Amino acid sequence: MFRHAIVISFIVLFAGLLHNGGVLKPLKDGLTELRFAAAHRDPTGGIVLVEIDAKSIAEIGEWPWPRRIHADLIRSIDRLESSEIAFDIDFSARSNEADDGALEAALRSAKSSVILATFTQPGSSDIQDGRTIASQPLVRFRDHAWLATVNIELDPDGHVRRYPYGAMIDGKLLPSLATLYGGVSPNTGSFIIDFSISASEIDRISVIDLLQGRIEAQRLRGKKVIVGAGAIELRDVFQVPHYGLISGSLLQAISAETIAQGRALDETEQRIAVVGLIVLAVLVWAARGSKWHHVLLTLIGCAALVEICAGALQVLHTVALDTSAWHVAVLGFMAVTVGREIDLRRILLVLSNTERQNLKIVLDQVVSDNFDGIIVVDDEGAIQSISRSAAQILKPGHRRNWIGLPVKELAPAEMLLAMRNAISDCAQGEWRGSAPRQLHLQDGGTDERVLEYVVTPSRLHENVDTTGGRPAGRFFVCLSFRDITERRRAEQRLAYLAHYDTLTGLPNRNHFTESLHEVLKEKTAGASSGAVLYFDLDRFKTVNDTFGHGTGDLLLQAAGRRGLELVPPPHVFARFGGDEFAVLWREPIAKEDLQTLARRLIEQIGDPYEINGNRLTIGVSVGIAAIDETASGPDVILKRADAALYRAKKAGRGLHCFYESSMEAELRTRQKLEMELWDALARQEFQVVYQPQFDLGSRKLIGVEALLRWPHPERGMVPPNEFIPIAEEVGMMEALGEWVLYEACREAARWPQPIKLSVNVSPVQFTRGNFVASVTKVLADTGLRADRLMLELTESLFVQECGAVRSAIDELKSSGIGFALDDFGTGYSALSYLRKFPIDAIKIDRSFVLGVPDDVEAMAIVQAIVALGRSLGIRLIAEGLETPDQIRVLQELGCQEGQGYGLGRPQPAQLIMELLN
After folding, report:
1. Mind listing the pLDDT tens digit for each residue in 884-895?
2. Which of 262, 278, 296 lies at the terminal end of a domain, its last residue?
3. To the nearest whole number, what is the mean pLDDT of the chain?
4. β-strand 580-585 against 572-577: which pairing, if any?
5. By residue range, what is the domain housing residue 306?
6. CA 727 to each of CA 545, 671, 822: distance values in angstroms, whole numbers, following the listed order
7. Residue 149: exposed, middle, or buried by beta-carbon count in 10 A (0-12, 13-18, 19+)?
8. What is the CATH number of the domain that holds 398?
9. H helices within 266-384, ranges in order?
10. Strands in 552-618 per DSSP E
11. Taking every annotated instance into account, which residue ranges of this chain make up the domain GGDEF (predicted)?
């Protein structure tokens, strides 16, 4: 115990002597620097550094600068309304009268306070001579400025860590620049600079930028400015903690920030270190009976706690606590503790035994808990170790302790043979490793399981076992295996999904492209090698939006089955996605036969479908591209077939078309139109025009129908039948419909008479989003009365029995909004929804009105619609009235309202307002 007390005392005394002798100063400075690095502090922003940098020297073209440059600099800073200007520049020598006069005049006229640098320097080149002389600005400058010292104190290692509050110059106490800017009283002492203040965030301005007026006024207004050297070639640089080499002017700025923020650090007295050493010695003495690792943890904790406290004191209370002696003492106590308590040989022995025991425990646990099956077998075939998964894989449901039992009771014959061969090869030195093998196991039922396994033999070198008499060098084999049945199925499933469509079971685009690539590789030069027929389902989007995706999927499956009947192997009938299909005819085929195939596809796939009690009618258009010598790859052929399909659709749908070279330009034009549509909506290029609706009896204007027009800035007026289908395909009808509704309501609300406003609504607007909320918001924003708005719906909206649609219509109807049935008789006609839904008006489609009065069938249809409307008490509106005879006949039949070119063309809102006036 006495010996332990002597050791503790010696360590405390030794640490104290090192500290008192200054040996620990590098450690103390290093710890302080680490605390600076750990605590980031923003500058106040009130001090701005105007640097004489390399760019300024280069552009002005000489150094030292004539003092008229400094005069210009004062005026430039003064114009930007800074509060104070300090020059870290020597003005103690005369230059020439003109330049000195210019500087004097600038100092005299400056509105800001100007501070000039004063400093002391050695009186001679003799190092032994301790005398200094003061360098002060010329008297003519001092009379118009404040003076401040800019001397820097260097530590023995060449670093700057402290900064003076002031200095005695010619018997007079002058404040330092930092003291003057910080607003504290000068004295002859110094303080530790807080280098946790971010130097990079201090605002720096190049002199040349300031002189040339490139600096914004707010960067200097009300700020304190330090002008000094920033260029490396001026050699006004110092080594500091945390930041390394910085300019003298930046050092002045950090020092001023230190005082301005109240961060001038004070160093603790030496007796604090002594007290700390005594406390540490008492703590070690108190822990003398504890285990050595507890003592080590305590010492480490103490060192960490002391350093945390030191950091907190430095950050929160501007106290630089010297902890270097404490850390040296902690290291000494740790070394003594380890050396006293632990013998090196004992450490090695304990570590060796512990490592071996831990390794055995870990390996046993790894084997037992492994997700894979693992069995370790000795050379006599007895199981030495086994994972729980192994028995579950090989003998499901058999729970027993397999350790020590023969492996043949558990493993299949193929695995047993592999293990015997592995041990034999290892014994003869011929073992070269084993690749994973697969074993197919047939369960009691029809299911087959696939196991992947690998065997690894090992030879253990050990002493003779005297109890068993067995020779050294026993063999063991490790059998590792896993059930990969599900993985194999997943791989097969992934392979299927990579080449087949999950909805229809048809080959997909990837399969089709690979097959087309094979045909291209096999084609004979100069001869046709087959063709690609590309088509999609016309009006499929309407079916999908109207009846839902479930019905749409059934329709795609049915269409796929019909198409497959027309395309026998080895030809390929594939679905590309959505409603797009393609046929790859792999053999040479005449053009006439291709036409026949295309017509059969159009007829058979286009026949009506009966799905979920609904009769669905779609159409098919086909684009055809031959596989010839001009086809460089699958993408080119598919692009050609797509261009031909576009031409077929444009020609009227339900047609087929062969690819021609002129089609590519047409397809590019359409693709460009798609992109321009979205831009047009964003730039509000669209316009709303209004077609008048008249009472056929009085010929009075009673309403208008809002119609969409697109005056393209380059193409001119784009016809609606050209851009509306594209808008539906690219999914922008919802946004476009909302815009039309808002614009029409906004303009109609300003008209002098409360006539009806009819706006077309697509099924997409009803089935997606909250249409009721959207309409309600438009009416509220525009101020249009609800009873003036008539929403025109198409028949396809009512075909699917949808409670949400009925609920939305009822809610809008209750607010006063009216509903008209547009294009009556052209869609999925059914009379029941005229009774179920609150329809206010029926619009007779222009296709029927066109035949009046000469076409007997058209007359019969119109008469039937009029009779139906009158019997149900629903208003009738005839569309497409172009001739006086049509107007007269429709009026005589009992149709109350009408619209068309014979009554009035679509017009801008301004002309409608003039008509109403």
Report:
1. 999 999 999 899
2. 262
3. 84
4. antiparallel
5. 2-24+269-342
6. 15, 12, 20
7. buried
8. 3.30.450.20
9. 270-286, 292-316, 324-341, 344-369
10. 572-577, 580-585, 609-611, 614-616
11. 528-661
Whether the CB-CB separation of 413 and 420 falls below 8 Å is answered with no
Q: In this structure, what token pair is assigned to residue 550?
A: 């479930």
What are the residues whose beta carbons fall under 8 Å from the beta carbon of 478, sequence distance 6 or more? 374, 375, 376, 377, 455, 456, 457, 458
Report d(CA 247, CA 208) in Å as an integer.
Answer: 18
Handedness of CA 190, 195, 197, 203 (dihedral sign): positive
Q: Tell me the C-alpha distance between 137 and 152, whole Å.
A: 18
Give, as one character, the DSSP assignment of residue 200.
Answer: G
Distance CA 580, CA 576 (A): 5
Residue 37 belongs to some domain of the structure: no
Task: Note whether 912 and 751 are within 8 A (CB).
Answer: yes
Q: pLDDT by residue (tens digit) across 817-838?
A: 999 988 776 554 446 667 778 8
pLDDT per position as a tens digit, 605-645: 999 999 988 889 898 999 999 988 777 789 888 988 988 98
Proportion of the chain in helix, strand, coil states, percent, rounded to 5: 45, 20, 30
Token code pair at residue 661: 């070279």
- Lowest mean pLDDT segment, chosen from 107-116, 326-335, 879-888: 326-335
| Cα–Cα distance, 662 to 196 (Å, whole number) | 72
CA atoms within 13 A on the CB side of 78: 15
The candidate with the shortest Cα–Cα distance to 605, out of 535, 700, 671, is 535
888, β-bridge pairs:
none
Measured distance CA(149)–CA(121) in Å, rounded: 12
Distances (CA, A) of 385 to 208, 406, 409: 82, 12, 15
Give the C-alpha separation, 410 to 381, whole Å.
Answer: 11
**Arithmetic mean of pLDDT, 477-498:** 84
Please state, in angstroms and as integers, the Cα–Cα distance from residue 338 to each residue in 13, 347, 889, following that order: 20, 11, 116
User: Cis omega before residue 396 (within 30°)?
Assistant: no
**Residue 472 in tokens:** 């050294």
Virtual torsion, Cα 313, 314, 319, 324, nearest 10 deg: 90
Residue listed under structure tokens 């309304």:
81
Q: How many domains in the chain?
A: 5
Instruction: Clarify whether residues 472 and 569 are in a common domain.
Output: no
Taken in order 326, 328, 331, 332, is the CA torsion positive or negative?
A: negative
| E strand spans, 18-88 | 47-52, 84-87
CA distance 831 to 811: 22
Contacts by 674-683, CB closer than 8 A, 24 or more apart: 674/726, 674/729, 674/730, 676/712, 677/723, 677/726, 677/727, 677/730, 677/732, 678/730, 678/732, 680/710, 680/712, 681/732, 681/735, 681/736, 681/739
- Asked which of 210, 243, 262 is the last residue of a domain, the reply is 262
What is the C-alpha to C-alpha distance for residues 256 and 193, in angstroms, rounded to an integer? 9
In angstroms, the Cα distances linking 163 to 34, 43, 47 are 20, 18, 17
**Same domain assignment for residues 140 and 55:** yes
pLDDT tens digits along 410-432? 888 888 888 888 888 888 877 87
Lowest average pLDDT, out of 37-51, 380-394, 782-796, 889-903, goes to: 380-394
**Tokens matching residue 744:** 């029409």
| Interatomic CA distance for residues 302 and 304, integer angstroms | 5
pLDDT-derived band of residue 722, with 50, 70 and 90 as boundaries? confident
Provide mean pLDDT across the span 373-386.
Answer: 86
Q: Which helix (H) or strand (E) holds 778?
A: helix 771-782
Name the packing angle between helices 67-79 and 97-109 (round to 10°). Answer: 20
Other Cβ atoms less than 10 A from the Cβ of 328: the count is 20
Same domain, yes or no: 648 and 712:
no
Cα dihedral angle (670, 671, 676, 677), rounded to 10 degrees? 70
Rounded Cα gap, residues 859 and 853, in angstroms: 6
